[in-house]
Amino acid sequence: MFKYLRVVIIHMLTIGEFSKISRVSTKTLRYYDQIGLLKPGFVSKDSGYRYYEVSQLRDMLLILRLKRYGFSLPEISAVLASGDSKHFAELMRTKKEMFLRQTQNQQHILLQMEQDIEKIERCENIMQSNYLVKTVEMQSKTIYSLRRKMSIRDFQEAFETLCAGLEKNRCKPAGPFLSVYHDEDFNHECTDIEVGVEVSPGTSGEHVRMLAPGLCCFATHIGSYDDFTPCYTALMEWIDNEGYTISGPPFELYVKGCEDNVQPSEYVTEIYFPIKK
């Protein structure tokens, strides 16, 4: 009876061959090896040459596709190591939502560019504002609010916390939600912002205060929350032209927004500046 030694020969690709087929530079392949993302199937102890299995080309295809989908290298590494298809699908949905938001933003930019082109062709100033500025003596309002240093990205979380506090204290909104900007300057990453909502007069307790801005000028912005800067600019120009000065922090009233189940293009926001002569 004979025992046979069965030798399986696996065809290996040099790093150069693997680079040519996958269209990924050898420098990148060495980096992927270094960080553990895609290690060679075999490394010669004598020469240090890297060799890859043909099956690893599929791994590289996946890496390249996930990079196109916006995955970071650590995220890709976790996907390759996990093998959890359910978690992988959840990650893919998250990236899909990210691309949808980016696409919507790009569509908004393209629409604005088209409108600007039409204005330029009519020899109009594309930065000319169409906001109608009015003045109002605003009566005092009772508001339930939370004030903190936050970034613009924290707005949703801040309003969720606000709504949770309203429910806990059994307070019902009696008017639109609002934001007050207390800092003199504005920093997207860290600004003193107060989020709140009007509640019924006579409401008392923690986080309840009076908002009494007095004389204000205001303008109405119709559209998404992406950029209120043109509206703020129109208000500042009006204040300067009319000889007023700012007497308090500006604030925004969200007259119609996402909680009203309307499209962002239909959002209605009133922006106020307290003023005095």
From TrEMBL:
Coiled coil: none
The HTH merR-type domain, residue ranges: 12-82
Keywords of the record: DNA-binding
CDD domains hit by this protein: HTH_BmrR
SUPFAM superfamilies: Probable bacterial effector-binding domain (SSF55136), Putative DNA-binding domain (SSF46955)
Domain of life: Bacteria
Molecular function, one GO term: DNA-binding transcription factor activity
Pfam family, one: MerR_1
The keyword NADP is assigned to this record: no
Database matches in PANTHER family: MERR FAMILY REGULATORY PROTEIN, REDOX-CYCLING DRUG-SENSING TRANSCRIPTIONAL ACTIVATOR SOXR
Record-given protein name: MerR family transcriptional regulator
Gene source species: Dehalobacter restrictus
Lineage: Bacteria, Bacillati, Bacillota, Clostridia, Eubacteriales
